[in-house]
Amino acid sequence: MPRSRTLATTAIALLTTAAFTPLATARQPEPPQSTVLPLVINWYLLPAEVEPGGTLTAGGDMNTGCTPAGPLTSPGFAEPLRFTRGGNFGRFSGDTRAITTPGTYEVVFQCANRPERSVKTFRILGTPPTTTPPPKPGPKPVVKPKGAPQTGGGTAP
Q1: Which CA distances in Å does 70 have to 13, 19, 58, 61, 151?
Q2: How many other CB atoms are found less than 10 A from the CB of residue 109?
């Protein structure tokens, strides 16, 4: 066999072996890791500080995949906050009144179709009432008149 033909046969054999034999040192790329982020509930509660009996407004949009489970409630609300206004792009909003007792209160937004929920706080301005009532005043002293009773001049008109 001529030398060129032997060289060609050897080259073909080596190329075929190299093409079909995986390299021991070559690493296959790992598939990208994916992370599931928690749902961000897009809603607002305004104002953060309100006068006693003042108006609070809440709203948001359903673009995050969360619709409200119902009216919002809080111990600081005079009545539940119902979402009575709607708008473009799934927006919703509503109003309620604050109670008259100062303090900090929480409002929970619960999704109707998901387990996620979001909590916001607001503050009713003023001095919160004390837990102990003020002392009651004692009985008034009895005032006794001094001297003879005043009955008038004694002459009739």
Answers
A1: 75, 65, 13, 14, 74
A2: 20
The full set of domains in the chain, from first to last, is 44-124 (2.60.40.10)
* pTM of the predicted model over 0.70: no
| pLDDT single digits (tens) 49-62 | 999 999 999 998 87
Contact (CB, 8 A) for 121 and 105: yes
Question: Which tens digit of pLDDT belongs to each residue from 4-24?
Answer: 566 566 656 555 555 555 555
Give me the sheet containing 91-97, strands edge to edge: 43-46, 55-61, 91-97, 85-86
Q: Is 8 helix (H, G, I), strand (E, B) or coil?
A: helix
- Tokens linked to 150: 């005043």
